[in-house]
Amino acid sequence: MGALGGTITMEAVAGRGGVVPTLSAESLVASIPELALVARISTTTLSKLPGASLSAQDVLAAVDWAMAEVDGGAAGVVVAQGTDTLEETAYLADLYWNRPEPLVFTGAMRPPGQPSADGPANLVAACRVAACEPGRDAGVLVVLNDEIHRARAVRKDHSTALGAFSSPVAGPAGSLIEGRVTLHRQPVARARLERPTSDPYVPILETHIGDDGATLRAVRKAGARGVTIAAFGVGHVSASMAAEIEKTARDIPVVVGSRTRAGGTLRHTYGFEGSEMDLTKRGAILSGTLDHRKSRILLWALLASGMSTPEVRASFDDIAASGPLPCGTNHGDGG
């Protein structure tokens, strides 16, 4: 088990006015006797950071560590971290995880010192999933509140509730009942990407009523290598914003997703200026059911691997859909 920090590792510290990440992976595991009944667990403290301060490099370092663990004989790996960014970090890890053994992310909504702290139960459940045969070849999974989610589908939907995580489009991939792990779906083919060679600036912009594209112009001038737009409804923006997207897409990839909780973008329904069909004609890439946060992660990863804008356009749809890479491309060893 590797610990990155987050609420699951936080305690009150004199003079700080609130809880901060202090617990090591070793002390966290030692505080949960039930874990000894699940598996033989080794521990590594990878960092002591709140989830909001994690970077892509922190996640990739955790993936490297996890690969070394399974190469050394581990049946599975659990990473505990802050829930603020868990939906993004888990998907980023999933783009690179190329081992059959389970890699499971978990965390907590309440710190250890609070009544009914959920960290211990989440960590036990995550270890059960990581140690179980059904978890093999499933890619990166997220386990909290006795629910199992695929990294691609999971979202944090509530800021404080114990049941904060859900998979709005696909539903949970499985559950734990009385400690028994059940996966509802068979593993799907997943693309694995080449490791990053750069750290491109790729922001998310959420459109809004009266958006004339000023913010998009600003980030383009600031050197953005790609942009993800959280658009209205099924992928709509104002006519002024559509014109700015067309200018931007001539030089860098622009991915358009939906700012709604579920449903994603359409492709062939609306034809007005600023609609999904119009934006496609203007050069935008539609994200489909991949939400805008994960669309940004995928766009960043593609650009970070050295892909050009045409290569991003050719690969985004297939990878976003969790399917195999298009014939004739090879962005990873497939594990």
UniProtKB/TrEMBL annotation:
GO process terms (BP): asparagine metabolic process
Active site: 7
Keyword Hydrolase annotated: yes
Domain L-asparaginase N-terminal: 4-188
Domain Asparaginase/glutaminase C-terminal, residue spans: 202-316
InterPro entries documented for this protein: AsnASE_II (IPR004550), Asp/glu_Ase-like_sf (IPR036152), Asparaginase/glutaminase-like (IPR006034), Asparaginase_C (IPR040919), L-asparaginase_C (IPR027473), L-asparaginase_N (IPR027474), L-asparaginase_N_sf (IPR037152)
Keyword DNA-binding attributed: no
EC number: 3.5.1.1
Annotated keywords: Hydrolase
Superkingdom, taxonomy of origin: Bacteria
Gene3D superfamilies per UniProt: 3.40.50.40, L-asparaginase, N-terminal domain
GO molecular function, one term: asparaginase activity
Top-level EC class: hydrolase
SUPFAM superfamilies found in the cross-reference section: Glutaminase/Asparaginase
Family of the protein in this entry: Belongs to the asparaginase 1 family.
Protein name: L-asparaginase
